[in-house]
Amino acid sequence: MYLEESIGKQVFEDLTHEFKARLDRTDIVGWLKTIAGFANNIGGELFIGVEDKTSKLIGFDRKGADNERNFFNNMVNQLPTGQSPGVCDCPTVQTDSDGLPPLIPAVSHSTLAEGHTGDVTSWGG
Q1: What pTM did the predictor assign?
Q2: Residue 107 CA to its chain's centroid (Å)
Q3: Angle at 42 between CA 41 and CA 44, to 5 degrees
Q4: How far apart are CA 56 and CA 76, in angstroms?
Q5: Of 84, 78, 81, 87, which Cα lies nearest the Cα of 124?
Q6: Which residues of 14-51 are buried (b: 16+ CB within 10 A; e: fewer)?
Q7: For residue range 5-50, what is the model confidence (pLDDT) as tens digits?
Q8: Other CB atoms within 10 A of residue 55 CB
Q9: The pairing of beta strand 106-108 with beta strand 86-87
């Protein structure tokens, strides 16, 4: 199954969409920069559980989704006060019984971004 079959529209990686099979626990700053980029721009969606190049839906079982969602939220909540972009909780998209849903946190544009220097080296704990 592919992402477009799950969400009912075709989505490509661009300035407002990014695909990650899983959140990289060894490169937290890397995907937090994506979140910061969305906040500095017009916002965006990070599709977690979707292959990067193919948009193939990998998804998560319930336990895996809970673990990934908690990890994502914990890392975003560790951002310095006043620098956290507007990130909603990681919702899942419902799929048919054979499909495993991805997590799709949405990031809104941040008005703090205009004066921010972009230093995210301390993010991620």
Answers
A1: 0.72
A2: 8
A3: 100
A4: 26
A5: 78
A6: eeebbbbeebeeeebeebbeebbbbbbeebbbbbbbbe
A7: 877 888 889 988 899 999 999 998 888 888 888 878 888 888 888 8
A8: 19
A9: antiparallel
